[in-house]
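Input record (one chain):
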Amino acid sequence: MRQIRQSKKLHDVRYDVRGPILVEAQRLEAEGHRILRLNIGNTAPFGFEAPEAILADVTRHLADSQGYSDSRGIFSARTAVAQYYQQRGLTKTAVDDVFIGNGVSELISMVLQAFVDEGNEILVPAPDYPLWTGAVTLSGGTPVHYLCDESNGWNPDLADVEAKITEHTQALVIINPNNPTGAVYSKEVVAGLIDIARRHELVVMADEIYEKIIFDDAVHHHAAAAAGDDVLCLTFSGLSKAYRVCGYRAGWVMISGPQEVATDFLEGLTLIANMRMCANVPGQHAIQTALGGYQSIEELIVPGGRLYDQIMLADRLLNEIPGVSSVRPQGALYCFPRLDPEVYKIDDDQEFVIDLLRAKKILVTHGTGFNWPTPDHFRLVTLPDVGMLEEAIGRIADFLATRR
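The corresponding structure, as predicted from the sequence alone:
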């Protein structure tokens, strides 16, 4: 019989956060090993629960959620999102500027399908959340990675961004707060990125899903605020992380700037939204309650709060390991430590994390899986409680001691 093969469109698409390392973890679990999964930011397995008001509201609306909704999303959810941005200075945001999706992931794919043509180049940070690189490739475009500078708090290298622009460049992706580095960009850095987009007539795609998870004196600045009325900006965010409802798949994209020059693109986006019928309706009913009610995330991100204490502990413990350095995260849920190449001779970082997995039953993600160009980093999720984190990083330290 003929072999049934995957589409050639997938040949250059990777999503290593759930790739071969997860397959190996599942194999070990099938053998009876207990694996501590620190590869994805899934809040529920670590005891983070959704606010009760959100659960109650979703439950209350289940009977009304049996049919399709408007393909752009239910009116109350889109209104809540529009008002959220209005309260943050984006006063021109209207209900029709908002599309609700099955998480930010679906919306990224939808937007890129509607926007990208063969041969288009999209600027994506390195390191990045790898869905961006994969979705650009799958949509027929070419991801071009601009470097973030580890020695400068993982801020984007603006000169490198500008140097990567060609006649084929169509859009600039900004991930702020950044996954995997935890960097939160200053107002000046955001303005610098927008200035580049403005001068080169690029569309800005701002992934801001971690905007509420920031620590100490860090301040999040919306790209759309800097973009103003003359740069088309698509802002992606949602409930998954800040409200601990990853499984509800409640995300949105908000469109701001000169929409009159993007009517054809927006027609295409509407077409794709119609083709998928609608986002998960029960999850949409969580949005109004979440955005308008008590913001329980605030007690988790200050000293004494779980998210704060865990990420600070992880940063400290990692930096105590000989040959390991970690830039303190300002936001998000991750550390992205560096393994000094003079201390650890690693040629294949995927092989390295699989060796760690087999030896210590700890699952992390290798840095090249986030399109970082050299095999000298890995990403660690900081969601486990402090006791579990101490145990996990202790195991990593023991493993690294055998590799020095």
